[in-house]
Amino acid sequence: MIEWEVNDMRDILFDNVNKVSFEEVKEKMNYYINSADKAMELYEQDKQKSFELAKQIRAEIDKEYKNIDLIRTRNYYKDNKYFSTFKKAVHESSAAIVGRTTHNNFFSFLYDVNSYMRYYFPRKD
User: What is the pTM of this model?
Assistant: First the structure.
């Protein structure tokens, strides 16, 4: 685990056990935005640490994606209006990089994570 990164929230947000609130979705998406921001800020000073953070962020997003793509998860949260928003942001972020995370593609991945999470950021109705 990277020193700056403290993640007190559930590993998987939509875990098929807990109800998920607007605030939790917002907090998780902010976590991804801030994590990508921090990794991009590190890029000029310590590319290797930035790369390691990008790999960690990718692993977390891929884990979320695999879970939210399950039929049982979609069925469990079909009435949660923020599930769809979170799913779109995670899907786009996960699809932003194909294949291995490399020194040639990780910065653009971080940029995409930041961009997609901001674009799909939920609005309270």
Answer: 0.89
